[in-house]
Design goal:
Layout (H helix, E strand, L loop, with lengths): L1 E2 L8 E4 L2 E11 L7 E8 L5 E7 L3 E4 L2 E12 L2 E6 L5 E4 L15 E7 L4 E6 L3 E9 L12 E6 L4 E5 L7 E5 L4 E6 L1
Antiparallel strand pairs: 1-6, 2-3, 2-6, 3-4, 4-5, 7-8, 7-10, 8-9, 10-11, 12-13, 12-15, 13-14, 15-16
Length: about 190
């Protein structure tokens, strides 16, 4: 058990029987009333986003989380299947628990967050930036580089990403998995 002074961004807390990640937090102080601590919370085991306010010093219930490396294997009717890199144990996760399922490639390493109390997998996080192959893209217009014009390109995972005009089919690009945006061309 902890108090509101221990809240930090990324912490997972138990609230009303559900698990939430702290996205943002702050403190409101007024001259007459006691300080209040507020937090924007995103559901780990549900799709809800809420805001919660506590009196300063109230108790909160953080959940200990372990991050383990898993490898993405395949997708079937049970969900997305991952294998533990150390024990070779396999787990299936639903699409809602994966932060960017459209960018998953077979054999890719991801981080799985496990609740240490119940050993239940809570969510899957891809690396911040990944390298993918452009499988389809319209040819770019030569000399049209004065503006930051983008065109759609399909990558090897099947996702569509907006890329600059100079990126062609068959090239490797780096994309940000959090925003889904093009970062750079990889040589």
């Amino acid at each position: 058990m902890a108090s509101t002074s221990d809240i930090s961004r990324g912490m997972i807390i138990k609230l009303d029987g559900s698990l939430y990640t702290v996205v943002e937090f702050g403190e409101n102080k007024t001259a007459r009333a006691a300080a209040k601590v507020w937090a924007k919370l995103k559901g780990v085991d549900n799709a809800r986003s809420i805001e919660k306010t506590w009196n300063s010093g109230d108790s909160i219930f953080p959940v200990r989380v372990e991050r383990k490396t898993y490898q993405y294997l395949y997708k079937d009717d049970t969900g997305y299947n991952f294998m533990d890199a150390e024990t070779f144990e396999q787990i299936a996760m639903q699409e809602t628990l994966i932060d960017a399922p459209q960018f998953l490639k077979e054999g890719q390493e991801v981080s799985v967050l496990l609740n240490t109390e119940s050993e239940q997998p809570m969510s899957v996080e891809l690396p911040d930036k990944i390298v993918v192959l452009v499988t389809y893209s319209e040819p770019g217009m030569k000399g049209d580089t004065a503006t930051r014009t983008l065109k759609p390109a399909t990558v090897e995972t099947g996702a569509t990403v907006n890329v600059p005009l100079f990126v062609n089919e068959g090239e490797l690009i780096r994309i940000n998995t959090k925003t889904g945006e093009y970062v750079e061309r990889v040589k």
